[in-house]
Amino acid sequence: MSETQEKTSKPTDPLEPFRAMRDIYLDAMAKSMVEAVNTDAYAQATGAMLDGYLAASAPMREALDKSMIKALQQLSLPSRQEVAALAERFTNVEMRLDDMDAKLDAIEKFLRAAAHPPEPPARKDSASGAVKDPPHPRGSASVASARRPRRRIGRRNTPR
C-alpha cells in the first residue's frame, strides 16, 4: 500500500449509525420534554403532587421534631430554636456595645476639646514689636495641676 491510500482510508466503525440514531433520539426527547414541562397542566400536576407529599409527611415531621427536642434535652444540648434565640440576643448586645462605643468616643472627643481649649492668637507688643505669648487662662498654674484628683467609686471612698 502506498502512503496516500493509508491517509485517505478510514477504519470503518460498525456502531457509528447506532450512535447517530441515539443522538437524534436524545435531541427529539429533549425537545418534547421541554415542551411538556413548560405547560400549565404540568405545573398544576406537579403542584398537586407536592401538596399531597407535604400533607402526608407533616405528621411524620412533627413527630421527628418532638423526638429530636427530647433527645437534645436528655443530652443537655441546645435546640435550634434556643441557638437562634441566643444568636439574636448576642446581636442585640453587640449593637448596644457599638452604640456605647460611639457615645464614649463622642464624650472622649468632648473632654479632649475641653481640656485643651484653642489658644488665642499671639499679640505683638506695641512698643517693641515682639510677639508675646498670651497669658495662661488659669494664671501661672498649668491645667494638669489645676485638675481635681479623681474620686473612686466603691467601698474605699465610703465614709467610715
Structure, described:
It is elongated and about 120 Å long. The chain has a two-stranded antiparallel sheet. By secondary structure, it is an all-alpha fold. It has five helices and two strands. The longest helix has 36 residues, at 80-115.
Sheet bearing the most strands, described? Answer: 2 strands, antiparallel
**How many β strands by DSSP?**
2
Strands of the biggest beta sheet: in what spatial order?
A: 1-2
- Identify the overall geometry: elongated
Strand content: under 5%
Return residue spans where pLDDT drops below 50 for at least 5 consecutive residues. Answer: 141-146, 154-160
Order of helices and strands: HHHHEEH
Task: Note the total helix count.
Answer: 5
Radius of gyration: 43 Å
Question: What level of helicity do the residues show?
Answer: 55-70%
**Arithmetic mean pLDDT:** 81
Summarize it.
This protein has 160 residues and is mainly alpha-helical. It contains five helices and two strands, in the order ααααββα. It has a two-stranded antiparallel sheet with strand order 1-2.
